[in-house]
């Protein structure tokens, strides 16, 4: 039997937005394309749909139980009836909370590996060679201080002038990853590794892209990009994922 892939919280929230129609047209188109190309992701979408449907059913049952308790006429010595109703309410509530937290949000092996092997990417040293680099290195300083939102804002401003710049795309990606926005990190890291230009940090870009997919529960894609990286941690992770 194939081992079940767990769905990370981040991936669950993305798919939930897709199912509920809370995405932009472009985001929905990207998801539709991914469903067509990736059977594993397609299965993830179906699992989340089933979970949401089941949860809604249980919420409806819970609401019905609450309404029954509220509309039941008061009687003397009806302690047993009230006790039974509250027991039913407690069971229904526990099911909704427990089913979601155990099935989707338990701490699966991928999450453990991500936590063990993830450390924020190193920034470039401030060499101050050109005045044009001042904004970029200011962003690097913010990144090093953990001010990821501020760093991303500056880097994206620079990227508007040069959207194909691998260095900018790489650091926007790793800053999003450090800021725990995996879904935002992936497109920038994808752009970096798909570039045909020679990029000095291409191995690191593949490593962090592999980590991002690992965190989202996409083991197959994680392996694909980790195999493109020559970092020591990539080799260790591939070994762990192959076991």
From TrEMBL:
InterPro entries: TPR-like_helical_dom_sf (IPR011990), TPR_rpt (IPR019734). The chain crosses the membrane at residues 89-107. Pfam families: TPR_16, TPR_6. The keyword Magnesium does not apply. Residues 45-72 form a coiled coil. The keyword Repeat does not apply. Keywords: Coiled coil, Membrane, Transmembrane, Transmembrane helix. This is Tetratricopeptide repeat protein. It comes from Neotamlana laminarinivorans. The lineage of its organism: Bacteria, Pseudomonadati, Bacteroidota, Flavobacteriia, Flavobacteriales.
């Amino acid at each position: 039997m194939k081992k079940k892939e767990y769905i990370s919280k981040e991936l669950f929230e993305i798919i939930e937005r897709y199912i509920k129609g809370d995405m932009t047209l472009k985001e929905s188109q990207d998801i539709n394309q991914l469903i067509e190309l990736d059977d594993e992701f397609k299965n993830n979408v179906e699992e989340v749909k089933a979970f949401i449907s089941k949860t809604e059913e249980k919420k409806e049952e819970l609401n019905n139980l609450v309404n029954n308790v509220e509309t039941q006429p008061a009687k003397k010595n009806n302690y047993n009836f009230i006790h039974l109703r509250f027991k039913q309410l407690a069971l229904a509530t526990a099911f909704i909370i427990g089913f979601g937290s155990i099935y989707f949000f338990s701490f699966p092996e991928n999450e453990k590996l991500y936590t063990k092997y993830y450390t924020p990417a190193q920034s470039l040293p401030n060499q101050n060679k050109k005045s044009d680099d001042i904004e970029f290195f200011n962003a690097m300083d913010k990144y090093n201080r953990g001010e990821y939102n501020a760093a991303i804002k500056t880097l994206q401003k620079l990227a508007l002038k040069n959207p194909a710049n691998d260095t900018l795309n790489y650091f926007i990606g790793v800053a999003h990853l450090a800021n725990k926005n995996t879904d935002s990190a992936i497109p920038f890291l994808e752009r970096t590794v798909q570039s045909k230009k020679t990029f000095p940090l291409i191995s690191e870009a593949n490593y962090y892209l592999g980590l991002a997919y690992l965190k989202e529960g996409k083991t197959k894609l994680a392996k694909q990009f980790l195999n493109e990286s020559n970092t020591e941690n990539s080799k260790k992770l591939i070994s762990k994922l192959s076991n």
